[in-house]
Design brief:
single chain, disordered N terminus, alpha+beta, elongated, 4 strands, four-stranded antiparallel sheet
Length: 117
């Protein structure tokens, strides 16, 4: 039972820890209204692209393995590796000008894109 509680608390911490904050979207927001090529020059070629009519969505994803060590005086130390991700999306409508841009994911992993902005 104690082990189940421990694992549940780790999973809850991972879910709550470090989603992209408004500062991520502010960092990316200065590229809104800029040509898509300006974003590609900073972060590289998109990993995926989708279309819906004249609307184009460009997607970049970055993942990093993170080792988490938990434990204390009354429990054994446990190390687990989890994959944390960040997704950057940019949308255009009929032109190559970015009209919507957002970042979502783990705060630390989103630094990969944030530092390139």
């Amino acid at each position: 039972m104690l082990r189940l509680l421990f694992v549940s608390s780790i999973l809850l911490n991972l879910l709550l820890a470090g989603c992209a904050t408004p500062s991520e979207n502010t960092a990316a927001g200065h590229l809104q209204g800029q040509p898509l090529s300006a974003l590609i020059k900073r972060v590289g070629t998109p990993d995926n692209q989708t279309s819906a009519g004249s609307r184009e969505t460009y997607i970049w994803e970055h993942s990093e393995p993170v080792v988490i060590t938990r434990g204390g005086e009354e429990t054994a130390f446990t190390r687990i590796t989890v994959k944390k991700t960040c997704r950057l999306t940019a949308e255009t409508e009929g032109t190559n000008v970015i009209d919507k841009i957002a970042m979502d994911g783990n705060y630390e992993v989103c630094a990969f894109y944030r530092n390139k902005m």
